[in-house]
Amino acid sequence: SHDRVINFGAGPSALPVPVLEEAAKGLLNFSGTGIGIAEISHRSKEFTECINNLESLIRTQLGVPHTHSILFSQGGGSGQFSAVVMNMLARYRLLHPDVKPEKITMDYVVTGSWSKKAAEEARRLGGGQVNIAVNSREFSKDGKSFDNIPAHDAFKFSRDPALIYYCENETVDGVEFSHELSEPTSFPFHLLKQGSLAPLAADYSSSFMCRPIPRLADHAIIYAGAQKNIGPAGLTVIIVRQDCIVDVDAAAKLGAAPVPITFSYKTLEESKSLYNTPSVISIYMTALVLELMKEKGGLAYYEDLNRRKAGRIYGLLKDGEEKGVFKRKVKAGSESWMNVVFEVLGDDAEKRFLEGAEHLGMKGLKGHRSVGGVRVSLYNAITDEDTEKLAQYMRDFITQEV
Ligand code: PMP
Question: Which CATH class is domain 297-401?
Fold first, then answer.
């Protein structure tokens, strides 16, 4: 693996080398079966053990309570933009059979491009009104960028929404809620109706298992595509509170939109996520990653590691900003641990920065096409050493430029 570079890409992203080496063996012979992991039946005893093990690795490390099921599906984060709406509208219909669609609200917290997309999908599907509970662009430095998490008093939730939606970490914009609930940029859990089962759904696609999830038990749904922190693309992890696993066909009889069978949480729950063929290889590799995470010390270890990595890069950005070399895009307190987004100032400087990095074996640093600049993704597989290599390069770059 000496010819590998450091991959700071935003997703699919770097995976730990020991996992890749183990998976290479599994590709030829999975768990002593003599059959490779890409070839084996998803109903085999060995694979059943693997998927059950994955469930329990997630449950233990994240501390998922038994009020919540852990489901596996395909379709990615984008598939869940739709599934969340359809399942939660079905639930609302069963709870309130007589409320007309134009009276049903779904609250969307918009803090970046992904939550904006999720809100657009809800609007497209219909069946309820989309209320933008807050739009962080209104609070940005220039009036149009997703560069902040707004203050708690800016959030306006509806009285009895079918769904409240937020994206914990905005991968493109580099904006993230703080996981310290005492911070002003945390999610305003205290504004949700107390004592009720809040219909709170969170997209954790790019921050899943990088640190503990605050108020996990108070969520109705948490989901994430595996392809950033924990595995290859093709696997979507969905944590669902059991009151949100509803009979979508009964809801359809009462007027809710029919839900495609593979998108129904009830289908996934009843089939133990094996209604149809899952992404066998992604499930296998994700289990390998989580085994390694467990060995290293679980989320406490990764929380420390990720805090350190982000601190190091943001520290250098501050330094570079004072010297007129770099410019941070995101307001203080709203910065993502996972995706650090910034500009390199000066003619052609960004190009020079990216080329210089690539020359030293660091790739995947170009910002998303919609925002430009540089984006450093610091997912779990990026080590202290990898981060230090980039930090040293940034230090040298600052010295050269001033
Ligand atoms: N939400 C977030 C926060 C994401 O980063 C992404 C993908 N980058 C998605 C949703 C969409 O995920 P997928 O490509 O798995 O559909």
Answer: alpha beta
* pLDDT value, residue 1: 58
Cite the residue boundaries of each domain of the chain with CATH code 3.90.1150.10. 297-401
Cis peptide before 12 (omega within 30 of 0): yes
The confidence score (pLDDT) of residue 194 equals 84
Q: Which residues of 303-316 are buried (b: 16+ CB within 10 A; e: fewer)?
A: bebbeebbebbbeb
**What one-letter code names the amino acid at 183?**
E
Task: Show the tokens assigned to 203.
Answer: 């997209």
Return the H-helix or E-strand segment holding 296: helix 280-296
Give me the mean pLDDT over the 91-105 stretch.
Answer: 97
Q: Which atom of ligand 1 is nearest to the CA of 79?
A: 16
Q: Distance (Å, rounded) from C-alpha 182 to C-alpha 396?
A: 37
User: Mean pLDDT throughout 261-272?
Assistant: 98
Length of the chain in terms of residues written: 402
* Mean per-residue pLDDT over the chain, rounded: 97
Please give the distance, rounded to the nearest whole angstrom, from the Cα atom of residue 169 to the centre of ligand 1.
10
CATH dotted code for 45-293: 3.40.640.10
Locate the DSSP E strands across 195-308: 200-203, 221-225, 236-241
- Regarding the beta carbon of 167 and ligand 1, being less than 6 Å apart is answered yes
Ligand 1 geometric centre to CA of 214 (Å): 21
> What are residue 77's phi and psi, to 5 degrees?
-60, -40
First to last CA, the chain: 36
Which residue out of 81, 114, 204 has the highest number of ligand 1 atoms within 8 Å of its CB and is therefore the one to mutate? 114
Separation of 69 CA from ligand 1 center, angstroms?
21
Residue nearest to atom 4 of ligand 1 (CA): 205
